[in-house]
Design a protein that fits this description.
By secondary structure, this protein is mainly beta. 6% of the residues lie in helices and 58% in strands. The two termini are 29 Å apart.
C-alpha cells in the first residue's frame, strides 16, 4: 500500500500539460519494476518484482485534460478498490524523455511507436465451435492497453470494484504476427518469461486475434478500440 501510494504521489503531483504523455514509462528500485502505459485516453500503472517474479499491484482507467489539470478516472485499483469510480485532478511536470521526482527517475520506454496496435482495446467478440459472437462490453470488462512496445491486459468490474486478473510485458507486431513476452502475471508468477505468438489482423478497425492461450488452448478473439465504442 505504501509503495503504491508513493508511486501515485510521484506520478501525479506535478506534470505540465502540453508535454507528450503518451507512450510507456518505467522506474525501478529494490528489484521492483514499475511500468506506466499512457494512451491518448487511457492509462495503467503496474508494479512487480523481477527476481523472483512477483506481481504487486495495478491501477488505471481513463484520463483527460481540464483547464490546467489532468483528470484521472479510476476504473480498477488492486491496492485501493474504494477509489474505483472516483476522479483525481493532478498537475504534472516532465521533460520529453524523463520524469524526475526527488530521487526517483522515470525513463521513457517509447512514445507510442512502433507497435501497430497501440491504444486501449476491449474484448467484444469470441469464436466458439466455429461461431463468432460479438457484444458491447458492460460493467465487467477485459481491456488490453498497449503503447509502442508494452502491453497489459486487465479483467475487472467497474460496478462491483472486483479485479479478476492481469498480465503484461513487451510485444511486437511483425508480418501479421503478434508476439508477447510476459513480464508479470497476477494469476501465476511462474508464467513470467513465457513467449506467446498469435496471428492478428485489423478488419474494419477491429483487432482479430487467434492462436493459443497461455494454457495452450486455441482462441479466436475480437477486440475493439475503446474510442470507437465510446466507453
Amino acid at each position: 500500500m505504501k509503495v503504491l501510494t508513493c508511486l501515485y504521489t510521484l506520478l501525479f503531483s506535478s506534470f505540465l500539460i502540453g508535454q507528450n504523455l503518451t507512450g510507456a514509462w518505467s522506474s525501478s528500485a529494490d528489484q521492483i519494476q514499475s511500468v506506466w502505459i499512457m494512451t491518448a485516453n487511457h492509462f495503467s500503472i503496474t508494479q512487480y518484482k523481477t527476481d523472483p517474479a512477483v506481481f504487486i499491484s495495478t491501477a488505471g482507467g481513463s484520463w483527460a485534460t481540464a483547464d490546467d489539470d489532468v483528470v484521472l478516472n479510476w476504473e480498477f485499483d488492486t491496492s485501493s478498490p474504494e477509489k474505483v469510480g472516483t476522479q483525481t485532478n493532478v498537475n504534472f511536470v516532465q521533460s520529453e524523455e524523463n520524469i524526475q521526482w526527488k530521487n526517483t527517475l522515470w525513463r521513457r520506454i517509447d512514445n507510442g511507436q512502433p507497435g501497430a496496435l497501440k491504444g486501449a482495446w476491449l474484448i467484444t467478440g469470441r469464436e466458439r465451435e466455429g461461431v463468432i459472437s460479438e457484444r458491447v462490453p458492460g460493467v465487467r470488462r477485459t481491456m488490453k492497453i498497449l503503447s509502442g512496445t508494452q502491453f497489459q491486459w486487465i479483467a475487472y468490474n467497474i460496478e462491483t470494484n472486483q479485479f479478476f486478473g492481469t498480465g503484461g510485458g513487451t510485444y511486437q507486431t511483425v508480418n501479421g504476427q503478434y508476439t508477447e513476452e510476459i513480464e508479470y502475471f497476477s494469476r501465476d508468477n511462474s508464467r513470467v518469461g513465457a513467449r506467446l505468438q498469435f496471428d492478428f489482423e485489423l478488419q474494419e478497425g477491429k483487432w482479430h486475434h487467434s492462436g493459443k492461450s497461455s494454457k495452450g488452448k486455441p482462441i479466436y478473439e475480437i477486440w475493439s478500440k475503446r474510442v470507437d465504442l465510446g466507453i
